[in-house]
Amino acid sequence: MIVGIPKEIKNNESRVSLTPAGVYELVKNNHTVYVQTQAGIGSGFTDDHYLKAGATILDTIEEVYAISEMIVKVKEPIAHEYKLVRAGQVLFTYFHFASSKSLTEAMIKSKAVCIAYETVEDDEGSLVLLTPMSEVAGRLAIQQGAKYLEKPVKGRGVLLGGVPGVAPGKVLVLGAGVVGIQAAKMAAGLGAHVTIMDVNMKRLRYVNDVMPPHVVTEFSNEFNIRKHIKTHDLIIGGVLLKGAKAPNLITRDMLKEMRPGTVIVDVAVDQGGCVETTRPTTHEDPIYIIDDVVHYSVANMPGAVPYTSTVALTNVTLPYVLRLANQGWETACGNDPSLHKGLNIIDGKVMYHEINEAFGW
Asked: What distances in angstroms separate CA 270 from CA 94, 344, 349, one per listed residue?
């Protein structure tokens, strides 16, 4: 199979879909790999690294799309790429269709085969290709949140870990999935007081068992959320509904109940956000302020640490890329129930129910 790796062109997206080591494995399996020049430079991989792995370097994104049977990316195609996608071409990437009607309609129109990383699910219900980026995003959420709590950027001026004689900051984590647990772990490591909320008691029991005493669990409902937002300094939105739009757990009116300078990091922004006032931002312009509450909602958070993210992503995606290349998408998805769940759009037809539900189709 001919596999293409274009350079990501989303704002400040420096990740690349496969490392040279991943390309080497594809070439070893008798596949042809085309990599757009400079595709890996942001992650620390040069064109020479890819050449030595057996890839062919192409100058433009148009050339990569035109020649490739399967495109492997990190983020969803943006408007400039829509016209490059063709019928029957396989696209394997993060799509998050439920949060973008224009993207969904463009991929339907293209009649391509769209396999979404974020809905590939193993036998235990784990979203195996989303997990590493959720781990990165959860940890980054605390790193970024701590920065924006500083007074020069309109935060509360609170040090999360505190100092002797001064109480540490308080972190509220909404969602006890991968993002939430990683965020809680990072915040606890800094010495912050952490409250983590979820509707799944099994998850809360797990958190209670593995976290230190200064991480407490509480059942998630509107009453409890309203109670905690009044006293917490940093709020992390880590809620995920598989393939669907995230629920609004914090509404606009709740902002007035928060203290000025409170910071919200909505990691769920890729799926529409779990805060009503969330809108996607970029690494160049990451925050905005509403009712004196600082909002951080960068839609590609792991892109800020591209080396770590690229290697972590290749570690989990490569076996599936090889399966698709070796067997073709129909056989691979037919033989592998996990990969089959990644099929979102085929030949203009939406295959994933939650996408139709998101747009009322």
From this structure: 10, 16, 22
Q: Using the 8-state DSSP alphabet, how is residue 167 labeled? A: P
Q: Report CA-CA distances (Å) from 126 to 132, 208, 333.
A: 11, 20, 17
Alpha-carbon gap, residue 299 to 78, rounded angstroms: 13
The amino acid present at 262, given as its one-letter code, is T
Q: Tell me the catalytic residues.
A: 96, 270
Tokens of 293: 């509450």
pLDDT-derived band at 360, boundaries 50, 70, 90: confident
What does residue 319 show for φ and ψ, rounded to 5 degrees? -60, -35
> For residue 296, what are its two tokens?
């951080």
User: What does the H/E/C string look like for 120-143?
Assistant: CCCCCCCCCCCHHHHHHHHHHHHH
CB 179 within 8 A of CB 141: yes
- The answer on pLDDT for 127 being more than 80 is yes
**CA–CA gap between residue 170 and residue 109 (Å, rounded):** 47
Q: Which structural domains are found in the chain, ordered by start?
A: 2-120+306-359 (3.40.50.720), 131-303 (3.40.50.720)
| Strand 70-72 versus strand 2-5 pairing type | parallel
The C-alpha atoms of residue 34 and residue 265 are separated, in whole angstroms, by: 37
User: For position 241, what pLDDT does the model report?
Assistant: 82
Statement: the pTM of the whole predicted model exceeds 0.85: yes
CA 186 to chain centre: 18
d(CA 258, CA 254): 7
| Helix then strand then coil, % of the chain, to nearest 5 | 40, 20, 40
Distances (CA, A) of 359 to 83, 136, 275, 276, 289: 23, 29, 19, 17, 29
